[in-house]
Write a structure and sequence with these properties.
Elements lengths: L9 H27 L8 H34 L12 E6 L4 E7 L9 E3 L3 H6 L7 E6 L2 E11 L9
GO molecular function: translation elongation factor activity
Organism: Streptomyces narbonensis
Keywords: Elongation factor, Protein biosynthesis
């Protein structure tokens, strides 16, 4: 990644917004148990340990909520992905050594059902970041080293054809 604000594609934004909503719901559930627990009666060690565990869980949830909020703000500030070089949010068509071509989108969050999404921290994603049309990339796969050529570069607005 470039070190500056990274664009956020629509698929990643939607996934982060869903996770954020789930985390906020979970946080409220945990917070309610803290407000209702305890009272003025001193509890035993098990009660105190349980309360400490809930406080720790709240801290974990708050940290992840802040992380996602920041990433969503950063994505909004970054604007659309560049069409000059591969970055997060780019749609890239690559040609492999065997002649097959595949279009992928570089994202930060991989959607399980989206075969065209490649995360920026995956081997192919890392190899593609910063590259331009015509560049050749080499990266490691479970089957060994693979080479691909960047055939074209889009803005990430559409889904690539994975065939």
């Amino acid at each position: 990644m470039t070190g500056g604000p990274e664009p956020l594609d629509a698929v990643a934004r939607a996934a982060l917004e869903r996770e954020l909503a789930d985390l906020r719901t979970e946080r409220e559930t945990v917070a309610v148990t803290l407000r209702e627990g305890g009272g003025d009666q001193p509890g035993d060690r098990a009660d105190q340990a349980d309360e400490l565990q809930r406080v720790t869980e709240l801290q974990r949830l708050d940290a992840r909520i802040a992380e996602i909020d920041g990433r969503l703000r950063e994505g909004a500030v970054a604007g659309p992905p560049s069409t000059d070089e591969v970055g997060v949010g780019s749609s890239v068509t690559v040609r492999f050594a065997d002649g097959t071509e595949t279009s992928v989108q570089i994202g930060v969050v991989a959607e399980v059902l989206d075969a065209t999404m490649v995360t920026a921290d995956s081997p192919l994603g890392r190899a593609l970041l910063g590259r331009r049309t015509g560049d050749t990339v080499t990266y490691d796969t479970p089957g060994g080293r693979t080479t691909a050529v960047v055939v074209s570069l889009g803005d990430g607005g559409g889904k690539g054809d994975p065939s």
